[in-house]
Specification:
This protein is mainly alpha-helical. It is 37% helix and 1% strand. It has 15 helices and 2 strands.
Length: 354
């Protein structure tokens, strides 16, 4: 009888071991995430304050590692051909060099992909400001019918059945049971590390190295903060005020921008002010990619504003009166904007495909 009970007990242990789910914890699982402090120059805190980090998504080494892998993984798209990085390429300041990104079925988007640069301090995401956190922003492209064209259950199933992901999610979040909430949290953690504060402009303006700019670039900076009045909207440090404004592109709006979100006619034609950081490599410009070069952008503000555009922003008042920039001033202004390029950021291997 004792022998029979012993045999039955061994049999039950074997059955339990064989039926144990891969997503269950084992006795060797230890959840010990490593806190990660995102570094940037101390003067950033003086102007902006500490980087906001959601209390329910603290930044960790393991979370960033997972988010980086997900950012570059094509498993997120329906036919497994595109990743976040397909439309947000590091060499282009984490935006797309194409006027409109191409979806997995070949369809074109209707707005230029925005830069993912210093967005931890941003309160409005996307051209129309429809999302207010990086976690929420990371959710949209996966299910967008033009972009990745996928469903979250499909994505979760693929990741859950992957050889690596369950363990990576456990290391980052303490569970091997994957869901969409944890996916976007990880991607957001990685995106918060996309920090760019090491341009020639930063060295000159914030760190006091007057030798880094040539005379044309210095004249361009004076114009940027003075006669050309760029700084009203492209404020220092982030080089965007994070607002949504109508900058006088059109009389009639093919795309109503913020107005689509709020349904308020007073918001028609308003779009988020993009950062000018790394603007040299983020062409084409404007939400509809209408300008191919910085020279075209400067010419527009100098002489192309649609002055009677509905809801024209009040900050366009000085520009509306006419900048009357000379050709030399235009050249200097473009030269200054190119000093906003951060080559270390654009070539940082820690931000590239793992």
């Amino acid at each position: 009888m004792k022998k029979l009970l012993l045999t039955a007990g061994i049999y039950m242990l074997v059955v339990i071991a064989c039926t144990k789910k891969e997503t269950d914890y084992t006795i060797t699982d230890v959840f010990q995430p490593t806190p990660f402090a995102i570094t940037y120059p101390t003067w950033v805190d003086i102007y902006l304050g500490k980087m906001p980090i959601p209390s329910d998504n603290p930044t960790t080494v393991e979370g960033i590692t997972l988010g980086r892998k997900l950012f570059y993984d094509t498993k997120l798209s329906d036919n497994q051909t595109q990743s976040c990085a397909s439309c947000h390429q590091q060499s282009n300041g984490f935006t797309d060099s194409a006027a409109f990104s191409v979806g997995t079925n070949g369809a074109l988007g209707d707005r230029n992909a925005m830069q993912i640069i210093n967005l931890a301090w941003s309160k409005f995401l996307f051209w129309d400001g429809r999302r207010v956190s990086l976690e929420a922003q990371a959710h949209d492209p996966v299910t967008n019918p033009i972009e990745m064209r996928n469903t979250w259950p499909t994505v979760v199933n693929r990741l859950q059945n992957d050889a690596e992901y369950p363990n990576l999610f456990f290391k980052a979040f303490g569970t091997k049971n994957i869901d969409s909430n944890l996916v976007v949290k990880a991607i957001a953690q990685f995106e918060r590390t996309l920090i760019s504060f090491n341009s020639k402009f930063d060295k000159f303006y914030f760190e006091g190295d007057t030798s880094v700019l040539n005379e044309s670039e210095k004249r361009g900076q004076a114009l940027f903060f003075g006669k050309a009045d760029c700084n009203h909207c492209h404020s220092d440090v982030l080089l965007t005020d994070d607002a949504l404004r109508n900058n006088g592109l059109d009389l009639n709006f093919k795309d109503k921008g913020r107005g689509i979100v709020t349904k308020n006619p007073l918001d028609d034609g308003k779009f988020k002010v993009p950062t000018l950081r790394n603007i040299e490599v983020t062409a084409p410009y404007m939400h509809d990619s209408r300008f191919k070069t910085l020279e075209e952008v400067v010419n527009f503000y100098n002489e192309g504003i649609v002055k009677n555009s509905p809801n024209l922003d009040e900050n366009m008042e000085v520009i509306n009166k006419g900048l009357n920039l000379t050709q030399q001033e235009k050249t200097d202004l473009v030269a200054f904007m190119k000093t906003l390029t951060d080559n270390e950021f654009l070539n940082n291997s820690k931000l590239s495909k793992p």
